[in-house]
Design brief:
With 144 residues, the protein is mainly α. Helices cover 77% and strands 0% of the residues. Helix 7 packs across helix 8.
Length: 144
């Protein structure tokens, strides 16, 4: 790459690494261990780690080099992964309730959903107040 575009790519990669490091980089690991009930925490966190690292290693080892060498080139590969990363935003809004300042006993009921209707209430609770299933439960218990 010529010096100007090469410097722009370098700045963008460093910017991405910085923003990832102060957000999802450590946040995902904290969140995973925070939301798991004590009786399954060790195994569940291990499973989540495997699910997180397994596909990431396969993608970085096999798919990314093929994308870079293919018609997309390096820029297209970066744009593809950038666009893919934008899919995290709706997932975070819809599926990650706020757990700040809550005890484990308050967090576990936030994720109790067994049916599609329960999941819809969970998403609605996240969008309204960031409390998942606890949003609807809090309303019902206040009304009674």
């Amino acid at each position: 790459l010529p010096e100007g575009p090469g410097l722009a790519v370098l700045v963008m990669v460093v910017g991405y690494m910085f923003s990832f490091g102060i957000s999802w980089g450590f946040g995902a690991w904290l969140y995973i261990s925070e939301i798991m009930p004590l009786r399954v925490r060790g195994k569940a966190v291990g499973l989540c780690t495997g699910v997180n690292w397994g596909p990431a290693n396969v993608i970085s080892a096999f798919i990314t080099p093929a994308m870079i060498a293919g018609p997309m080139g390096p820029g297209g590969a970066l744009l593809f992964f950038g666009a893919l990363s934008t899919l995290v935003v709706p997932m975070a809004l819809l599926g990650l309730p706020e757990t700040k300042g809550k005890t484990l006993e308050e967090i576990v009921p936030m994720f109790r959903f067994a049916t599609l209707a329960d999941f819809r209430r969970f998403v609605a609770g996240n969008l309204r107040s960031g409390e998942g299933m606890a949003h609807g439960a809090g309303k019902a218990s206040r009304a009674a």
